[in-house]
Amino acid sequence: SHLLLDKYTRLKIALDVAQAVADVHHPTAITTQTNTATIVHSDLNPNQFLKMGNVYKLNDFNRAKFILKNTTSDDDAPCGIQTHMNWRATYQSPEEYSEKFQTEKVDVFTMGLVLYKIWLNEDLYPGMSPTRRREFVVNGGHAKIPSLHSQHALDVIMPIVLKKCWMTDPKKRASAQEIADLLHDAL
Predict the structure, then answer these.
(1) DSSP 8-state secondary structure symbol assigned to residue 81
(2) Contact between 35 and 70 (Cβ < 8 Å)
(3) What are phi and psi of 57, to 5 degrees?
(4) Rounded Cα–Cα distance for residues 172 and 165 (Å)
(5) CA–CA gap between residue 179 and residue 167 (Å, rounded)
(6) Which long-range contacts (CB under 8 A, 24 or more apart) does 172-175 make?
(7) Mean pLDDT score across all residues of the chain
(8) What 8-state DSSP symbol labels residue 174?
(9) What is the distance between the alpha carbons of residues 106 and 88, in angstroms, rounded to a whole number?
């Protein structure tokens, strides 16, 4: 049960989740000197992580997409994808709900939703219908980030991490590795 997990354990699980996503976004096995790629999981939610030994790993890649990096521009931006999605799903980014151009940053937004559940175990969008939730997220809304007035590392770092995950503009959103690094430093 979530309530039985102490804050240190929840911070460690949050780090595992972020590192698992970061590992998928930067797979060294498909990176060469002339061609780099990333994997977009496209279906992150709490049920997609399995505990293997003492580490949580990402699972279920049935909706995953491989995206090549643009090597012809100076910014090394991902080439991106556009997919149709289930707008009734809870764990979706603004660009997924609006069926816009998508990069690995869709996973960062939804990873933030998973991290929120690890931190607080509260409903993300209490009382919202799927239609209202979709409109809310597309218009920049996200789960409420409380101010807990606690000095525990988990309670200090999570508001920072969530704000970085939930930037509406995916270009301004942190990478999964940046989030993993912040959580590692807090641990």
Answers:
(1) B
(2) no
(3) -120, 155
(4) 9
(5) 13
(6) 173/105, 173/108, 173/109, 174/108, 175/22, 175/25, 175/104, 175/105, 175/108
(7) 82
(8) P
(9) 16
Query: Do residues 166 and 112 make contact, with C-beta atoms less than 8 angstroms apart?
Result: yes
Residues 6+ away with beta carbon under 8 Å from 53: none
Please tell me the distance from the alpha carbon of residue 52 to that of residue 105, in angstroms, as a whole number.
25
Beta-strand pair 65-68/37-40 = antiparallel
Please give the single-letter amino acid code of residue 87: W
Res 102: pLDDT: 79
In this prediction the pTM is 0.84
**Mean predicted confidence (pLDDT) in 44-54:** 89
Is residue 9 classed as helix, strand or coil in its secondary structure? Answer: helix
Query: What is the total residue count of the chain?
Result: 187
Cβ neighbours, 10 Å, residue 155: 17
